[in-house]
Design brief:
The protein has 269 residues and is an all-alpha fold. The protein has one domain. 70% of the residues lie in helices and 1% in strands. Strands 1-2 form a two-stranded antiparallel ribbon. Bound molecules: calcium ion (CA). The site of calcium ion has 7 residues, from loops.
């Protein structure tokens, strides 16, 4: 699975550099504006996003007509503010995981969305699931604006959607594990979504019990991840890695994940 993330990291570095150039150019272009126009507000939101002022960016974007660009930035603001998923953080986390030699998809997402000790409280899991659904929903609104739906998303949008989808699958898994882990206790203890923690504690949640909605959500995520990978044809390792990830979840390769397959995934981690 490692080269998916190396690739995404390389990609994000490129996108980050590009966005700095775009912001620099944009700032110059709107510098004579009156500050109230759509473009000026969008620029203000873009700068807030770039500085990690996600709440400010969100407030500005929610006041604007919901164009494709506004919807994409709004999704970025939610990912940054609610999921700790800003580009710099992802790159730093990937570097850290590279150094430690652990690059599982669960680890990388679990480390980003967890607190400073990588923990996810029950409240965190609920709030972050709502946020990731909202962030993905904004890309689905963009698809609705397009004649060919998801196929018409830009490469960058497909990659962002793929990353959000991996995050949602990890959060759905976190919810299912937390439900079992806390089944017999009065307080709801935090869990950690790393392979190391799951291996050490999985005897406490020998089986998880997904609802049909949970399984549908994972199926949709696998589809979006697949679209993200297919969007890029310059690196064939990507497809190999994606298939490895997908096969770990969908062991009979029928594009649907069952409860048994989910439990197998945890057991084989
Ligand atoms: Ca299957």
């Amino acid at each position: 699975m490692s080269s998916i993330f190396r690739f995404l990291k390389k990609r994000m570095l490129f996108c980050a550099t590009l966005s700095v150039l775009v912001i620099a150019a944009g700032g110059f272009l709107v510098s004579c504006d009156n500050g109230d126009s759509f473009d000026a507000k969008l620029e203000e939101a873009r700068i807030a996003l770039d500085h990690g002022n996600y709440a400010q960016a969100r407030a500005i974007l929610e006041s604007l007509p919901q164009t494709e660009m506004v919807l994409e930035y709004l999704s970025n603001a939610i990912a940054g503010g609610e999921l700790n998923m800003d580009t710099l953080n992802i790159i730093a986390t990937m570097d850290e995981l590279d150094d430690e030699g652990k690059e599982g998809s669960v680890d990388i997402i679990g480390t980003i969305i967890g607190n400073e000790n990588d923990e996810l409280s029950c409240e965190d899991i609920e709030a972050k699931l709502a946020a990731v659904n909202e962030a993905i929903g904004l890309f689905e609104q963009i698809m609705d604006l397009k004649p060919n739906g998801i196929a018409d998303l830009t490469e960058g949008q497909k990659l962002q959607l793929g990353l959000l989808s991996m995050t949602r699958t990890v959060l759905v898994l976190a919810k299912l594990i937390s439900n079992k882990y806390n089944a017999s206790s009065e307080i709801c203890a935090a869990i950690v979504m790393t392979e190391e923690w799951i291996k050490a504690n999985r005897h406490l949640f020998p089986t998880v019990e997904p609802t049909q909605d949970d399984l549908d959500s994972i199926d949709e995520d696998l589809h979006y991840i697949s679209v993200a990978i297919d969007a890029v044809d310059e690196n064939n390792d990507m497809l190999d890695d994606y298939n490895e990830f997908k096969n770990e979840l969908d062991s009979d390769s029928n594009d649907h994940v069952t409860a048994d397959e989910l439990n197998l995934y945890i057991a084989n981690m």
